[in-house]
Amino acid sequence: MSYTVGQVSGFAGVTVRTLHHYDRSGLLVPSERSPGGYRLYGEADLARLQQILFYRELGFALEEIAEILADPQANALDLLRARHKALVEQIGKLGRLVEVAERAMDVQQTGVRLGPQERFEVFGEITFDLSYATEAGLKWENSAGHREAMSRAAAHSKEDWARIMSEAAAWRAELVKAFDEGEPAEGKRATDLAEEHRQHITRWFTPCPPAMHLRIADDYTEDPRAFALVVPPSEQRPGLAAFLHAAVRANAESVGTGTGSR
Fold first, then answer.
1. For residue 172, how far is the Cα from the chain centroid?
2. Contact predicate 207/100, CB 8 Å
3. pTM surpassing 0.90?
4. Which of 82, 180, 216, 242 lies most in the core, judged by the most C-beta atoms within 10 Å?
5. 3-class SS of residue 137
């Protein structure tokens, strides 16, 4: 028995356009044609389509599927093993993302809710990139310090955030001024600013030993999204992130590396 492309599209759950593409690419060429030249699919064609859809559901590219169907015994097992490994890794990552999302929902439920105008009034140009928040949550997921920081951040009131951002703005202005005036990163003025930043984190978020402070500063030079939380793009200068990192390192060496971790 033969079936038209429309019939196959209906019961296989694929579009006519997809079937036409499979035909043109040689992946699934109908075994028959009607007197009018229309595609007709036989039982063997439908069995091949079922295989194609199976491998496509597993995420294989059409080129890989064609390779498997050309010689199933030679190609399928190795490719399936590789896909299995990739899927297991993806499941693990998605599981961690679910945990981060759940913690984020907890923060939203327990933290202060600010409307757009209030958020602008408090945070100004400082914005928290959601992709960075997610990656940071994964990076520090086993860190007690990170969990405490998120918990305390959620508990801050609007008034608390206004004080935090006011302190941060005053500190930032001094940092930029020191950089613009050519102060050495290892000098007293810069290291004092680094220590002030460390104490700010301790006061408002989580105890921040020098070693932990240095790990935080590493992100400033490695990820622009992290540095934008400290200095908004409109106030940044080339080399400023590296200047702050060097000041934090010098201060850590002066104060003592500490033993805490983020």
1. 27
2. no
3. no
4. 216
5. helix
